[in-house]
Amino acid sequence: MISFASRLVPTSFVRRDALASALSSLRCMSSIPPTMKAAVVREVGDAHALKVENDFPTPQLKPGQVIVKNEYAGINFIDTYHRKGLYPRDLPFVGGQEGGGTVAAVSDEAASQGIKIGDPVAYSVFGSYAQYTAVPAAKLLPVPEGVGLDVATSCVVQGLTAHYLTSSAHADLIKPGEWCLIHGVGGGTCQWAAQMAKLRGFRVIGTCSRGKADVASTLGCDELIVLDEVPGASYEDYESVDIVTRVMEVTDGEGCKAVIDGIGKSTVDISINSLAHRGIFISFGNASGAVPAFPVLRLIGKSAYVTRPKLLDYTVDRAELVSRADEIFGWLKEGKLNVSVDRAFPLDQAAEGHIYLEAGKSKGKVLYKID
């Protein structure tokens, strides 16, 4: 069968265009070195398992992909779980799953979608702790004018995670005007989540450490519970204040319709006991260790719900990914979201970046700056 396009365009022209496109892709790849700098895990372990190599093979362009020359890579707690082996990956692997930079090479399929060399983009795929990353075109987020690449990179994992936590993971069990408890609003994802929860119309109780109270106090929480610090840890001393009693005081004994908890082991009891009737415990992280198993009968007193979501299940296709990103970028451009980039480590200091994050020192997003 002759396609509609082939009836309009001479075959020689079609072949010539295809050849020109293929040659263009080859030229793009020829300008990219065969090896690159990357932070690689060959054996799981502590932060020093992340080794910087200067001759790691550069990814090859495949159909439907682009090659991104990275300017930034985001450092997230999930990266530390991969490095430790808590979330297993095949070895060896390049760390990271959040990056931002400019398009350096484009496949024919990506070009047909209007993606061009030099476009500023952000993305979430494995292997961002490197000078170059191969990214499926469907995973790219165009960075709008007026949003810096450092901020855009910060948005991809933490921003999108905060977005689904405050818009979808609660399954509409919380309504505007009702109370939401968010742990750890002084750093990372939950700085975003506190602001987004307020944009959704929720009343927010946040917890934070004393050392991060200055940052947390700018997020618009209706109530801020300030806790003592745990030296050298990425989480606060959740026994230093009777959080459940304070939550019940603030909410006139009703509790919270949603609790967003990225702390894990240290807060599971606090989170469940802070719930309102038919409230939902959203457990999304393990900063203090994985949540231990508990009997489902614990939820019967309040007919409560529990969920353990992940980002991939809330960005299942390009339409959902872009819809979330567009709303976040819109809030950024309108000045409704304030993103704190705490520190950018050079990639040569890969281990130091993980140590800094895990020590709980950050008051915002931690990045690698990639030369």
Automatic annotation (TrEMBL):
Q: Does the keyword Transferase apply?
A: no
The entry lists its GO molecular-function terms as: oxidoreductase activity
A Pfam family the protein falls into: ADH_zinc_N_2
List keywords of the entry alphabetically. NADP, Oxidoreductase
The superkingdom of the source organism is: Eukaryota
Q: Which PANTHER family match?
A: QUINONE OXIDOREDUCTASE PIG3-RELATED, QUINONE OXIDOREDUCTASE-RELATED
- What is this protein called in UniProt? Enoyl reductase (ER) domain-containing protein
Species of origin reads Cyclostephanos tholiformis
